[in-house]
Write a structure and sequence with these properties.
Layout: E1 7-8, H1 19-24, H2 26-37, E2 40-45, E3 48-53, H3 56-65, E4 70-72, H4 74-84, H5 93-103, H6 109-113, H7 116-130, E5 135-137, H8 138-155, H9 162-182, H10 194-220, H11 227-233, H12 244-257, H13 260-275, H14 277-291, H15 305-317, E6 324-328, E7 332-334, E8 337-339, E9 344-347, H16 349-353, H17 394-409, E10 412-416, E11 424-426, E12 430-432, E13 437-442, H18 451-458
Parallel strand pairs: 1-2, 3-9
Antiparallel strand pairs: 2-3, 4-6, 5-13, 6-9, 7-8, 10-13, 11-12
Helix pairs in contact: 7-8, 7-17, 8-13, 9-10, 10-12, 11-12, 13-15
Bound molecules: protoporphyrin IX containing FE.
């Protein structure tokens, strides 16, 4: 630990403290704070004390070893619970614990294994569209793809007329949440501001659809193999099931948390590959050798280590969740540092993911650095968070990232069209600020010559 004392940032505005600087350029401000003030930076948010923690040991303690002494940050609660209700992302304490226990089986490896085919199928459909148009808004495409995957796996909704409505309402809600985050003050939700009205309308639409689905499923009590069935059938240790409201909140939570993050991870991956032809060539070599032009299956995952490393390296550079927030529910001792009760804790993965103390040439895109992952300081890399609140969908997301990239990259090479600056914008997730235009160029996988074919030719 280089510094165990709190270095305070200048006080900022007399009313709002450092809120203004923080919102204006969150990533730049956090980077500046870490460089100038070190591992423990004190801030003030409208009278509330906050600490930005930049050392893996402290982060490990907050997320893992002393996790029970922290709740989720009240800021995100305030914004998100309006829409997500009391689902896994927004709840705390015993209620969260019970919900997590009941939802966890839905993410069991065996269960999510069945979703691989769906992920590949939607990748194929997107490639069909790419055939007819060569310039794409890649973030929009990836959002649509992952939204389709989550609709199908969560609600088994595809041909269903509801899917389009759900997608539309959800997109509206996510935009409204972004508007709320960006607005200079958290104004009350009853004010008839455009984003509040949009949020209300979209929430009503989604609720009506989801409640109807829950009602229908309850009638048959059947396991359809999707996540919704799992939520409905799951029982706690007393044999009790979730109420309809709880199922609704978890369904909407998974729906929202489960697509934008993965879509952004894929978007940044396409961009980085287009900027780093050597890594791209290595990826193509692996895909051609292992798949030889066919679509990937679940069994291929373990045979595609480089593809997985590409996704991991992409999430190191552009962490899809730009910020993890907590609040101390009691005084907490982090080694010799006392954190008073109610202090807000900010953890910015991009700071630690790019810290030269833990990463050799952090600015370089080098998937190979994950070859010896066990040598990486565990909490110098945490795109999925950690401890009891680690992303419940991390295996789902990794599987989706690798399968989609493997399916598409062997048939298409994407080239970034630099007509707008590439600026990462942190909202709930880290997305490109401007439209990310990419030219899609078809490529023919080089099918490796099989040993027996070789022998036949020689004979
Ligand atoms: C690349 C993709 C993804 C990334 C980078 C990501 C990242 C994260 C992170 C960092 C957290 C922890 C937040 C915290 O500790 O405050 C989290 C939580 C969560 N994620 Fe993900 N996520 C991804 C995909 C998914 C998917 C596919 C799903 C579901 C289908 C999902 C569902 C959730 C849920 C429900 C939580 C809350 C868990 C809890 O508190 O118990 N995520 N995610």
């Amino acid at each position: 630990m280089t510094s165990r004392t709190i270095q305070y940032a200048p006080k900022g505005n007399f009313l709002t403290g450092n809120v203004g600087e923080y919102r204006k350029d969150t990533l730049g401000y956090e980077k500046h704070l870490a460089q100038k003030y070190g591992d423990v930076v004190g801030l003030s948010f409208a009278g509330r004390k906050a600490l930005l923690l930049n050392h893996p040991d402290d982060i490990h303690q907050v997320l893992v070893t002393q996790a029970s002494k922290f709740n989720k940050s009240p800021v995100y609660q305030l914004i998100l619970s309006r829409f997500l209700g009391n689902g896994l992302v927004t709840s705390d304490g015993d209620f969260w614990k019970r919900q997590r226990k009941m939802t966890q089986p839905a993410f069991h490896t065996k269960r999510i294994g069945a979703y691989g085919e769906i992920m590949v199928d939607f990748s194929k459909r997107m490639m069909d569209e790419w055939k007819t148009s060569s310039v794409r808004d890649i973030n929009r495409d990836m959002m649509r793809l992952t939204l389709n995957v989550v609709s199908k796996t969560l609600f088994n909704a595809e041909m269903d007329k509801n899917a389009a409505q759900v997608n539309e309402a959800l997109t509206m809600v996510l935009h409204a949440i972004d508007d709320t985050i960006k607005s200079p003050l958290f104004l009350p939700q009853w004010l008839p501001l455009p984003h509040n009205l949009r949020m209300k309308k979209a929430t009503r639409t989604l609720d009506a659809i989801i409640n109807h689905m829950i009602e229908e499923r309850r009638k048959t009590n059947e396991d359809n193999g999707d996540l919704l069935s799992m939520l409905l059938l799951s029982e706690d240790e007393n044999g009790e099931r979730m109420t309809d409201t709880q199922v609704r909140d978890e369904a909407v939570t998974l729906f929202s948390a489960g697509h934008e993050t993965t879509a952004n991870a894929l978007t940044w991956t396409w961009y980085l590959l287009s900027e780093h032809p050597k890594a791209e060539a290595k990826l193509h070599e692996e895909l051609d050798r292992v798949l030889g032009g066919r679509m990937p299956t679940l069994e291929d995952l373990r045979r595609l280590p480089y593809t997985e490393m590409v996704i991991k390296e992409s999430m190191r550079i552009y962490s899809p969740v730009p910020s993890i927030g907590r609040q101390a529910i009691e005084d907490v001792q982090l080694n010799d540092l006392t954190i008073p009760k109610d202090t807000i804790i900010l953890i910015a993965p991009h700071i630690v993911h790019n810290d030269a103390r833990w990463w050799d040439e952090p600015e370089a895109f080098r998937p190979e650095r994950f070859e010896n992952e066990k040598d990486i300081n565990k909490y110098a890399y945490f795109p999925f968070g950690g401890g009891p609140r680690i992303c419940i969908g991390n295996s789902f997301a990794m599987m989706e990232g690798v399968l989609v990239l493997a399916a598409m990259a062997q048939h298409y090479q994407l080239r970034h069209i630099p007509d707008a600056p590439v600026i990462p914008e942190p909202t709930l997730t880290l997305r490109p600020k401007h439209v990310m235009k990419m030219r899609v160029e078809a490529r023919t996988p080089k099918v490796p010559v099989q040993a027996d074919e070789h022998e036949m030719v020689e004979a």
